[in-house]
Structure formats: C-alpha cells, structure tokens
C-alpha cells in the first residue's frame, strides 16, 4: 500500500530536494494552478525563537518584493498557527529545473576544465546584475555561494549551462540593520563568508561582493582560497591570511585577471569594488573579451560609475547571439592575447602593489591585535615615500636636561611595564598539566553525543568586563560554531550540561575544543577571539578514544599552537 501524499494547504509535497541549517526545500505541485513549485520549510528550532515570526514576516515581504530575471521568484509565504506547537512557516517559490553552480564547478573547474572567459563573463554578469538590483533596493543576501546559484535549463539560448538565478534569500536583511535577523548566529557559509561578516561587524553590499569574489577565485583555480577541515580554521584564514595569487594555481590566469580577483576579496570592504557590475567589467577588461550590453547599461546608470568602467568599450548587443565557444576551450584560448599592460586605472596599481600589502589586519577594527600568519616579523606596507637620504637628514642634538628627562621617562615606562605584567590577567603557564576535562554525554532522547560539561580548577578569575567562553569546532561546510558562556567562581569552572539546538552531534573526529576570554557585554559572538593571547585553554577531541578529554593551557608559541 502506497504512502499517502503530504499536503501543505493546496500544495502537494513530492520530495525533499535540499536541506540546510534553517530548513528543508521540497519539490511540490500547486494543485490550484497546476504548476511545479519549490517550498522552503523552516525548522522548528528557529520557529520557537523569541520574535521569530515577526522577523520572518517582515523579511519575507522584503524578499518577495524582489522582481528580477536572475533572482528566484517568491510567490507567497505562510504562517500557520498550530495549538501547542510553534507556528509552521514556509515560503513558496519558482521551481527551477537545472543544476546548481556548485555542481557545474564540480564538473568543470574542480577537474581542471576551466570554463572559457566568455562563459565566465556570462555567468558573473547575470549574478552581478541581480545582486546590484537587490542592493539598490536595500537588501543584502549574506550567503552568496555556488549552491545558491541555480542554472535554469528552461532557457539555454545564450549558454548551454542555462540562466543563472540567485536563490535562498532566506537569511537576507536590509542594509544598515544590525542584529535582529531571523538567522540569529548564522554567519553564512564559512568557505565564502566575508571577514567582517564572520566577525559580527557591520555588513553591507560589499560583503556579498566578497563572497562573489571567492566564487570567481574558485572558478578560475578549481579551489576556494581558504580551506580546512574545521570551521574556525577556515574563518580565521578569511580574517588573517592572504590568499595565494590565482596565477600561481592556474598558469592560464594572467596577472591582470589575478589582480581583479584579489581586489574583489580584499580584507577591507572599502578596498573592494563598489558594485558587482563594476567587478565584472574589470574582469572583462582583464580578459579582453566583450560583455553583455545590459551590464554596461547598469554601470552607466550607477552614480558611482568609475573611470575603469567607462574606459572599456567592447559590447555584445542584447539582440546578438553570443559567440560560439567550444566546451573544451580554456582561458588560454581566448580570442585575443591578454594585454601585458592594463589600460584601466586601478588595475595597474593592483598589479604593482607588493604582496605584503594584501594582508590586512581586520582585527584592528575591533581593537584586538592579530597573530602573524607565518613566523617572522609583522609585515608593514611600504610608505609612498621613503626617508630622506642620510646626507639630507638634519641631525638632532639633545640638550643635557632633555636627555636626562627622556632617560628617566624610559625607566618609569619599564617599571610600569613590570608592574602591569603582574597585575594583568595571565593563565597558568604550564601547557602540559591538565587544567580540567570536557565530558561528552547523550541526552535521554538522542543516540548521539549532543551534550557536554566542563570542569576545571586553578582558573584565574576573568578581568572586569570579560568572560570565559567554550567553543567546539564545526565542519567547514557548517555555518554555526557552538559556544557557551562559562561561569568561573573561586578559580573553578563547573558548568551545567551544555547543548546546542543547531548541532545534533558535538563529538566528531579531530575536533578542537577551545576556551577563550571574550567581551562580556557582547551577546552575539560568532567566532572565537582573534587575538591568540585570548585563546587560553584547549582539548583535542579524537573519538572513538573516549568521551572525556583533558583541557590544557594553550602554548605560548603561537606558531606551534593548536589554538590558533
């Protein structure tokens, strides 16, 4: 006997086609209009959050107001009240027949079969127009990634891959609105998240542009610039590490193209392109290939149009067919040889900039010092003009009283430093002696280890305004790092049983457990402290060796520390 079909209102549910941290996407039939639709169901743990329904309704209305050929069309959204249960929330949208860009890249770039330049410009032009449209309407997506770009096979007129369509605006929000979104602590997907987004700082449209730049990097090299097994490791790379220049990974990528990619994923938002269309225009110029006329029209209508955009003329008329390009043709077989000198302003300076200047310390924006990514002294970008030659530098003679005053001042500074060393908070210095344990357990209704408990001794009381936080790393494909605030009393920590409703299993192979010192006034932490001095204790979790693991002090040598 067959299973009876499931219905949501007048929608007949056929099959679950995707699921993620917020919910599930189902293929369904609208029985009134007899058309195929996609329905996104939000998970119950989100629906029970305080104020969730109001935020969902407000943001769903904003998302549904977007009307663009390269953005998924939202038909309606529903809030169904159920006695004794959280309300059922779901959105109904177009069903798109076709693969995701993630699948497309898996079958091309990841296999070393890089798409031709014309295909890349076609893909990114469509996405850029959609993003710029959403940004002009005050919306930022916050989770741009290949899996959220569908390739619609209903229209293969221009390219066999189909028409790119951005989907999953489910964690979008208005620009300039901080906090209070329906996603709580979700920060986007770690492989594509912008540094300021991961830090929980103010987000803007350039956060989306960073994510788009990461996709461009992956398209031209076959891999994302920042990778790793753990979510914390990947996020810290976005914040602190300079990416490998794409031309070193793919010899067919010219320095000019590489410079455009690196600008698009600059650590500081203000160093990126001002719009997605401007980014693609710069890419087309670096490729020396035509771009769709619709893209140039969008750039001309933008008040902040740059000279770089105006300097590039070649067009593909909107009523002209796209040039025929072989599926096996790679970047090296573009119709013209890439120029050795870039004509647009800005690109040349990017090519000539020393690689060290690409490493931007975003932590300075939050008044926290970041650890160096590699051993050696901190790299300081060169000044535009060097010091005067020795023969031109005036000699400064100090009078004896001034010299004595400065010497005395130096002694005072040294003495204050010694006193501050003893007054300032310092954890125990012996990294080999266990300070306590983290114990993993199962709840009564779970078959997985979904709980943990922390017990520690000889723990210094946190300084005023600070608090201890425990973190358990998550796989790089997740979008949430489980964390809990710990209470220290009389130099001991004995936590209650801790769990996270977004994570079913906390005990996973090769996981890092970390305790940090954080700002006690910040209730919306997303990632552990960047400053390695604030990463105090750790445990290396490696099941099936057991369920209890020793907590140790993080080594002072950050270059050999598992804590950073």
From TrEMBL:
Keyword Membrane included in the entry's annotation: yes
Keyword Phosphoprotein: no
Pfam families: Pkinase
Region entry Disordered, spans: 324-346, 366-391
Transmembrane spans: 402-424
EC number, as in UniProt: 2.7.11.1
PROSITE patterns xrefs: PROTEIN_KINASE_DOM, PROTEIN_KINASE_ST
Keywords on record: ATP-binding, Kinase, Membrane, Nucleotide-binding, Transferase, Transmembrane, Transmembrane helix
UniProt-listed InterPro entries: Kinase-like_dom_sf, Prot_kinase_dom, Ser/Thr_kinase_AS
Domain Protein kinase: residue ranges: 11-287
Record field: compositional bias (Polar residues): 324-335
A GO term for molecular function: ATP binding
Name recorded for this polypeptide: non-specific serine/threonine protein kinase
Species this chain originates from: Dictyobacter kobayashii
